[in-house]
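Final report, Chapter 2: Outcomes

The project's central promise was a pipeline that accepts a single protein chain and returns its three-dimensional structure in a standardized token representation, suitable for archiving and comparison. That pipeline is now operational. To close this chapter, we reproduce one record exactly as it appears in the project archive, with the input sequence first and the structure output second.
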Amino acid sequence: MDAELISIGDEIITGHTIDTNTPYIARRLAEIGLSVVYRSAVGDDLPRMEEVILQALKRVDVVIATGGLGPTDDDITKKAIVKVFKRNLVFHEDVLDDLKRRFAARGLEMPAINQNQALLPQGAVYLPNRVGSAVGIVIVEGGKIFASLPGVPQEMEVITDEELVPYLQAHLVKQGHLKIHKLRTTGIFESALAEKIAPNIKLPENVRLAYLPSYSGVDLRVIASGGTREMADEAGDKMVAQLRQLAGKYIYGEGEDTLEGVVGKLLTERGETVATAESCTAGMLSGKITEVPGSSKYFMQGVVTYSNQSKIDLLGVPAKTIEKFGAVSSETAEAMASGILSKAGTDYGVAITGIAGPDGGTEEKPVGTVLIAVASKKGVVSKKFLMAPYRQAVRGRSVYAALEML
């Protein structure tokens, strides 16, 4: 069965808020065999909201909207819903009582405006929200399922996982199954990876392959369909096996694995430690490493040596090295890595120095020039990178290049 996701809110269509809700819902729906074939966004305008919902109901089996269920005047999603389905809003005393209990449990008096959240479309099933005040709404009509969820990501995720997905599993007519698998690669860009893969495989009609690039690398996503779960699994597993043969040395993980998580796992298994010295990334590498729970076992310290003098004072980089080769050089990067290794007493020292821009580049060292070094008791290695000359891209890609080298 097909689904459409609708993001509601002026903040979404103006770009002030990035929509993270629909990707989350899409992933959860795929796990139960629902294909998202459309994604829409609409502002807080009643006629346009009504138009978008009606259009979605005409072309798919399941429509899920997020946003606009709060208690304030700009939250008008329920008004659009009752216009689309030609129903009235009905007051639910049990929903109001639950709201009052939540506020009381926090030692707060419920504002009168929150009573609006106890008004729900006539005949709707409501989905409890254990972390917020707005409940989810489900309406079934004409063989179609319409659901509306709060726009607050944490609330949306809880309702989706605990209420909506189980509801859909119980009420959907299964027309097939999907097998979704993601292989995560690094150290190779999208077109180069495609050159290795595309000429050597033939995609069956029931299998799709997508290349999904990001700062951390390129994900290979396989979606295989089948009349039974076994058929979908077989087709998906066969394609994944071929991809492993063709892209093996670039694959660092699968599913929701992260490069920082894989590095952390390797360090933990080996009982080894790491410290970082950063210039142009200004702590982004250490921040990424410590996003992993349990990273205190292997990450000892990180220093930001943005100025030349700090490289000399904190890492022991010889002043003559910077004078002769420059702050952005393999010699300086290697001295930084060796310096943090010595001072932290770790198994590895990782250093990044570069020109993130938009200024500071030269003909010899343009914006995007980055030197990364990794030192250990066995020695030190460095590598030069020429990143796309955009500050955010230079800094983001440098972090993952350093993790790959480590």
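Archive annotation: The mean pLDDT is 94.
This record, like all others produced under the grant, will remain available to the consortium after the project formally closes.
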